[in-house]
Design goal:
- The complex is a heterodimer of chains A (about 625) and B (about 260).
- With about 625 residues, chain A is mainly α.
- Chain A is built from 26 helices and six strands.
- Chain A folds into three domains: about 160 residues, no CATH class; about 80 residues, no CATH class; about 230 residues, no CATH class.
- A two-stranded parallel sheet of chain A has the order 1-4.
- The two termini of chain A are about 40 Å apart.
- Chain B has about 260 residues and is α/β, with parallel strands linked by helices.
- Chain B is about 40% helix and about 25% strand.
- Chain B is built from eleven helices and ten strands.
- In chain B, the strands form two sheets. Chain B has a six-stranded mixed beta sheet with strand order 6-7-8-3-9-10, sandwiched between helices. Chain B has a four-stranded antiparallel beta sheet with strand order 2-1-4-5, with helices on one face.
- The longest helix of chain B is centred in the middle third of the chain and has 19 residues.
- Chain B is globular.
- Chain B starts with a strand and ends with a helix.
- The relative contact order of chain B is 0.17.
- The chains are: A mainly alpha (about 625), B alpha/beta (about 260).
- The interface between A and B is large, with 42 and 51 residues.
C-alpha cells in the first residue's frame, strides 16, 4: 500500500561543509556508545567463531561493522512529506556519514586504550584480553587505535553514500549484501538440503569452507547471484520483466481464486516433500518453527483479530502439554485414581480440546470484562498462576511438581510411531495441525464471528451498541485461541517426551507475541514468516535456531527487533492491509485529504447527488 | 392515536453531584419523528446513552414495547429493536463499508464457528442474506456507498458519507426505533437538506420510528412531528415545532437567541 510517489520539487544539494554539526556529533556519540555497548556485551568475541566469509569476516566483526553503515545512513535521512521541497543529496550527506563513523570509531579506539591500560573485569566481565585482541585485529595497540576511526569513516561514508546512489544501485547493493549474508546464515539448511539426499556436494563444496562460513569464491558467487537477482528486480520495477507479485495483485475474481489454489497446492506439496530431503537437525528446526506457527496462529486470533492483548497465552500451551502428558504417560503423578486411563494420543487429544475450551472459559470469563492495559496485566498473572499450579505441592501428586511428567510416549499411528527421536515425523504431525489452524483462521476471519472480532478491535463500545454481545464474542476468541495452543502443547509433549513447569515460563508468551507482532498482526502469512524468522533463525525460548551462537543474545535481539519494527514497520513483515491502514493513519489521512482537494477542484460547483441545490 | 413504542417515566441520572437528567418524562409512538433539542450540556446525548443502555439511570424506568430496558446491556437493547448513531462519527474505520453494515446484523443472525468452519448451506445462505440486506441499506443513500465503494475501508469516506454510513449501520441492525445523534452536524446546507428528505423516507418507506437530536433548526422544523426541549436535564417544553419555538422558556434557554432566527 504505497502512496503514489511524492511529486516533490528538489532543491539543489547543499555544500559539503553546510552540516548540522550538532546532529552529526550526536549521532556520532550515539554510534560510539552502541559500538562500545555491543563490544562489552561480548557479541564480537562470542560470535567470532561463526564465520561469514572465511577467513576475512566473522559474525563477531559483522556485529560491529554494520552499525556505522546504518548510523551513517540514518544521520541524513529525512521524513519525506508530500508537497514539500527537499535538497538533493550529495557530498554533504556522504561527509556527514563519514564523520559519524569517525566519531564512533574514535569511541572504540578509546575503548581499546582503556582496556589496554586498566583492568575493569570485576564489574565488566567482558572487559577481556580476548576482546582487546579482537579489536586490534591481533596487530597490537597502535593498529587497534588507528584502524577503528578509519574503518568507521569508511563504513559511515558508505552509509551516507546510500543516499546518493540511484534506486537501481541501492537495490542491487541490497541484494548483493542480502545474498551473501543469507547464503552464509542458511549454511546448515542449504548444505542439509543439497547433500542429505541430493547429490549436489559440488555446489556446497564450492560455496562453503570446510569448517563453516563461505569460501572466498563462494562469497563472490553469492554476490554475483545477488547482483543478478537485484538487477532482475530493477528490470521488474521498470516493467521490462513481468513480476509475478504485481500480476497476482491485479488478478480479480475467479482468476485470483485459481491463482490462490495453485499457490496453496504448491505450498502444500513443498511442505510434504521438503522434509524428505532434509536431515535430522533441519527437520528438528522445522518442527520447532511449526510448533510456534501453531501457537502464533492461535494468538493471532486473540490479539490480531479480536484485539485482546493476552500476555498469558502460554497457559493454554501448558494445559495442552500437561493434559496430554498425564493422559498418555505411565509415569504421571501417583494421585490419579485408576479410572483415569493411560490412553492413546488421539484419545487424549479429545480430552485436551475439551480442557482447553474449559480453561479458555475459566481464564476468559473474569478477564474479558476488562480492557486494554488492565486486561494485559491480568492475563499475565493467569499465565503464571497456571504454571505455578502445575509446579505446586498441592497438585504435585497429579502433575509431578518440579519433576514434571516423563516417559510420554509418541503418537502411535499403527504403522509408525511419531516421537521426538524422529523429527521428520513430528514435523509432518505439526504441519497437519498448522494446516488445520490456517484453515480455521481463514474461515473464521471471513465469517460473522470474525467480523464481530474486528469490530471489537476497532471500537468496543460501538460494537456493543451495534448489537454484538462482546462478552460472548471475546470469550469465543479466547476459546479458539486456547484450542490451537493446546494442539501445540499436545504435540510438544509427544515430541519432547517429558515436560516440566519450566517449559511454560512467561518468556514463551512473550516470544509468541513477538512472533505475531514482528510477522504482522492479523495476517496468516505474516505470522508464519515471523515464526520462521524468529524461531527458525534466532531460536525459540529454549530451542536453538540456525544461528545457535546467538542464543546468548537472543533476547537482546528480540528486543532490538521489536523496537525497530514498532518504529519503522509497525504493521509487521507481511502486513495485513487493515493494520497497515490503522498504523499509518496519519499518512493515509494526509493523502486522502490531498486527493479530496484535487477532487474538489475538479468538480467545483458541480452538483453532487440526487437532490438539486436549494 | 397509534401504538406507544417507547415510554420514559420519571427518569433521572446523576454523575456524582451533577444531575445530568432530572425527572424526565418522554414517549414515542410508532411512526413518529421526535426531535430532542436543547443547548449544549442539556443532557441530550446522556438521554440517548441511557436509552441505548450505555449509561444506567439512577431512577425511573424506560419501557420499550411493554418491557423495561433498565439493566440491559447495549447489545440487548439493540437486539430488542433500538439502534443508534453517534454524534462524533464512530465507524469501524478499518473495516470495509460493506463489512460495517454486515457486522451490524450480528444480533439478527446466529451462525457460529461450526457453520463457518464447514461452510454449511445454512452458513452460506445466511452470509448471502447479510450481504443482501447490507447492500440494500447502503443503497438507501443512492450511489454514494455502493459499487466499488463496498470494499473500500470506511476511513476513506468523506465526512458526509461517514455520517451516511453511520445511519446505514443503524438501519442494518433491523431496528424499530432509530436514535439519530446530530445526523447533519458538519454537513453543508445542500447535504443536510438531502438528509432531511431521507429522514422522512426512513419513516414513510422503511417504517422506522425516529428520535433525533439536532441543532439545525431547519431540519428540526422540516421533519419533526414533535419537539422536546431539554435544558439542564429537564424537559422545559414539548409540542409541535411552532409551539416550542415561541415558548418563552425555550427562548430563554437559548440565552435570548430566538429559535426562529436560527431557521
Amino acid at each position: 500500500m504505497s502512496a503514489p510517489m511524492a511529486t516533490n520539487e528538489t532543491l539543489p544539494a547543499r555544500a559539503a561543509l553546510d552540516q548540522e554539526w550538532r546532529k552529526v556529533v550526536n549521532h556520532g556519540l550515539l554510534l560510539a556508545l552502541v559500538l562500545v555497548f555491543v563490544s562489552l556485551a561480548n557479541m564480537p568475541v562470542s560470535l567470532d567463531s561463526r564465520m561469514i566469509i572465511e577467513p576475512m569476516l566473522s559474525m563477531g566483526y559483522l556485529s560491529l561493522l554494520w552499525i556505522p553503515v546504518v548510523m551513517g545512513f540514518i544521520v541524513s535521512s529525512e521524513k519525506v512529506l508530500e508537497g514539500i521541497a527537499y535538497h538533493a543529496k550529495g557530498a554533504r550527506e556522504v561527509l556527514a556519514g563519514g564523520l559519524v563513523g569517525l566519531i564512533g570509531g574514535l569511541g572504540l579506539s578509546l575503548l581499546v586504550v582503556l582496556i589496554d591500560n586498566f583492568d575493569l573485569r570485576d564489574p565488566l566481565v567482558n572487559w577481556s584480553p580476548a576482546l582487546l585482541d579482537l579489536l586490534q585485529f591481533g596487530n597490537g595497540i597502535g593498529f587497534g587505535v588507528i584502524i577503528w576511526p578509519v574503518l568507521g569513516f569508511g563504513l559511515g561514508v558508505f552509509g551516507g553514500a546510500l543516499h546518493i546512489f540511484t534506486a537501481m544501485t541501492r537495490t542491487i547493493v541490497g541484494w548483493v549484501l542480502g545474498a551473501v549474508l543469507g547464503i552464509a546464515v542458511f549454511e546448515t539448511v542449504i548444505i542439509d538440503l543439497l547433500t542429505e539426499r541430493l547429490p549436489f556436494e559440488f555446489i556446497t563444496d564450492w560455496f562453503y569452507f570446510i569448517r563453516g562460513g563461505l569460501s572466498q569464491q563462494g562469497a563472490v558467487t553469492a554476490a554475483l547471484i545477488g547482483g543478478g537477482l537485484g538487477y532482475l528486480r530493477v528490470l521488474a520495477q521498470r516493467g521490462v520483466v513481468p513480476t509475478p507479485v504485481q500480476d497476482y495483485k491485479q488478478l480479480v475474481g475467479p482468476e485470483r481464486t485459481r491463482a490462490n489454489t495453485i499457490i496453496i497446492i504448491t505450498c502444500g506439496v513443498a511442505t510434504a516433500i521438503l522434509p524428505l530431503l532434509l536431515g535430522r537437525i533441519t527437520n528438528e528446526l522445522l518442527a520447532n518453527v511449526g510448533l510456534f506457527v501453531l501457537l502464533a496462529l492461535g494468538l493471532n486470533i486473540v490479539v490480531g483479530l479480536a484485539g485482546i492483548l493476552d500476555l498469558g497465552y502460554v497457559a493454554f500451551f501448558a494445559v495442552g502439554g500437561y493434559a496430554t502428558a498425564i493422559l498418555t504417560s505411565p509415569n504421571r503423578g501417583d494421585s490419579w485414581p485408576d479410572w483415569v486411563p493411560q490412553s492413546h494420543w488421539f484419545a487424549a487429544l479429545i480430552v485436551v480440546i475439551l480442557l482447553a475450551i474449559l480453561t479458555g472459559l475459566f481464564i476468559g470469563a473474569p478477564v474479558i470484562r476488562m480492557r486494554g492495559d488492565y486486561l494485559a496485566i491480568v492475563t499475565l498473572g493467569f499465565g503464571e498462576i497456571i504454571r505455578l499450579l502445575f509446579l505446586s505441592d498441592w497438585l504435585g501428586g497429579y502433575t509431578g511438581g518440579a519433576q514434571g511428567v516423563t516417559n510420554i510416549p509418541g503418537v502411535d499411528l499403527g504403522f509408525v510411531e511419531i516421537k521426538g527421536t524422529d523429527p521428520r515425523a513430528i514435523f509432518y504431525l505439526v504441519a497437519v495441525f498448522c494446516a488445520i489452524a490456517i484453515y480455521v483462521s481463514w474461515r473464521l476471519e471471513k465469517s460473522r464471528l470474525g467480523r464481530a472480532w474486528m469490530a471489537i478491535r476497532e471500537d468496543e463500545s460501538v460494537a456493543e451498541a451495534m448489537g454484538i454481545n462482546t462478552v460472548n464474542v471475546k470469550l469465543m476468541a479466547f476459546v479458539v485461541g486456547a484450542v490451537l495452543a493446546s494442539f501445540s502443547g499436545a504435540i510438544f509433549a509427544a515430541k519432547v517426551g517429558s515436560i516440566f513447569p519450566t517449559s511454560f515460563i512467561i518468556l514463551v508468551s512473550i516470544v509468541i507475541l513477538v512472533v505475531v507482532i514482528v510477522g504482522g498482526m492479523g495476517n496468516i502469512v505474516g505470522v508464519i514468516a515471523g515464526a520462521a524468522v524468529l524461531i527458525g533463525v534466532l531460536g525459540g525460548p529454549k530451542q536453538p535456531g540456525l544461528l545457535a551462537e546467538f542464543s546468548e543474545f537472543k533476547l537482546l535481539i528480540y528486543g532490538a527487533l521489536l523496537i525497530f519494527m514498532m518504529l519503522k514497520r509497525p504493521e509487521g513483515l507481511v502486513p495485513n492491509v487493515r493494520r497497515t491502514r490503522e498504523l499509518h493513519q496519519e499518512e493515509f489521512l494526509q493523502d486522502a485529504w490531498l486527493r479530496s482537494q484535487v477532487d474538489a477542484d475538479e468538480q467545483d460547483g458541480a452538483p453532487s447527488g440526487e437532490v438539486a441545490p436549494a | 392515536m397509534s401504538e406507544r413504542l417507547l415510554t420514559i417515566d420519571n427518569l433521572s441520572v446523576t454523575f456524582g453531584g451533577l444531575h445530568a437528567l432530572k425527572n424526565l418524562d418522554f414517549h414515542v409512538d410508532k411512526g413518529e419523528i421526535v426531535s430532542v433539542i436543547g443547548p449544549n450540556g442539556a443532557g441530550k446525548t446522556t438521554f440517548f446513552n441511557m436509552i441505548s443502555g450505555m449509561v444506567e439511570p439512577t431512577e425511573g424506568d424506560i419501557v420499550f414495547k411493554g418491557e423495561s430496558l433498565i439493566g440491559l446491556d447495549p447489545n440487548q437493547v439493540t437486539a430488542r429493536g433500538i439502534a443508534r448513531t453517534f454524534q462524533n462519527v464512530r465507524l469501524f474505520a478499518n473495516m470495509t463499508i460493506l463489512e460495517n453494515v454486515m457486522v451490524a446484523q450480528h444480533c439478527r443472525t446466529k451462525q457460529g464457528v461450526f457453520g463457518a468452519l464447514f461452510n454449511t448451506s445454512g452458513f452460506k445462505q445466511e452470509e448471502a442474506e447479510i450481504r443482501e440486506w447490507g447492500e440494500k441499506v447502503l443503497g438507501f443513500f443512492g450511489s454514494r456507498l455502493v459499487g466499488y465503494r463496498l470494499d473500500q475501508p470506511a476511513s476513506v469516506l468523506s465526512y458526509a458519507n461517514r455520517r451516511r454510513l453511520e445511519v446505514a449501520r443503524a438501519m442494518a441492525t433491523k431496528p424499530e426505533v432509530i436514535l439519530l445523534d446530530e445526523p447533519v452536524a458538519g454537513m453543508n446546507p445542500r447535504e443536510s437538506e438531502e438528509l432531511t428528505g431521507l429522514i422522512g423516507q426512513l419513516r414513510d418507506e422503511w417504517g422506522f420510528t425516529i428520535v433525533m437530536i439536532e441543532h439545525d433548526m431547519g431540519v428540526v422544523r422540516d421533519v419533526s412531528d414533535r419537539v422536546v426541549v431539554l435544558d439542564h436535564g429537564e424537559t422545559i417544553a414539548q409540542g409541535s415545532y411552532e409551539d416550542v419555538s415561541t415558548n418563552p422558556d425555550v427562548i430563554e434557554a437559548y440565552l435570548g437567541r430566538p429559535a426562529e432566527e436560527a431557521s
